[in-house]
Amino acid sequence: MGLRVARDVMELLRAEADKSRHKECCGILLGTYLGAGSTIAAALPAANVHPRPQTHFEIDPQALVNAHRAARAGGPQVLGYYHSHPDGPPHPSATDRAEAAHDGTVWAIVAPGEGAEHDVSFWRDDESGFTALPYAIDDG
C-alpha cells in the first residue's frame, strides 16, 4: 500500500519552508496508520524552540502534547514530524541521525528550491536508522 500524502500537506510543507527561509521550520504529521501503509492527511506547523534554529529543530513540546491529546480524543494520529534543511538536501543529516528516536515514525524533510519547487522526501526512522519511503500524492 505504501505512504500516501495529501496534496495540501505537500503545499503546506513547501510554504512553511519558504516562509522560514534561513531557519528550520518544523511540525507534526497527522493521519492514519494502516499497517502496510499510512496516509498523511494534515500537517500541523509548530514553533522551532531549538536555540540554534538555523541548523537544528526542536518541536515545541506543548504542540506535541496537544497533538497526542487530540489523537487520544479521536482526532488524527501523530504519524511523525517534518522539518526543513534551508541549506541542504532533503535527506537526514548527521544531526538528524544522531538525535532520532528510532521509534518507527515518519519524517518529512523539505530542502530549498524555487517557490513550489522545494524538494520533499519522506523517511521511516526505525531501529536500523532512516529508510527512504516512496509516496504517492493523494488528491482527496
UniProtKB/TrEMBL annotation:
Keywords associated with the record: Hydrolase, Metal-binding, Metalloprotease, Protease, Zinc
GO MF annotations, alphabetized: metalloexopeptidase activity; zinc ion binding
Pfam families noted in UniProt: Prok-JAB (PF14464)
Domain (MPN) ranges: 2-129
Keyword Hydrolase: yes
PROSITE patterns: MPN
CDD domains from the UniProt entry: MPN_like
Signal peptide: none
GO biological process assignments: proteolysis
Superkingdom classification of source: Bacteria
Classification via PANTHER family: CYSO-CYSTEINE PEPTIDASE
UniProt name for this protein: Peptidase
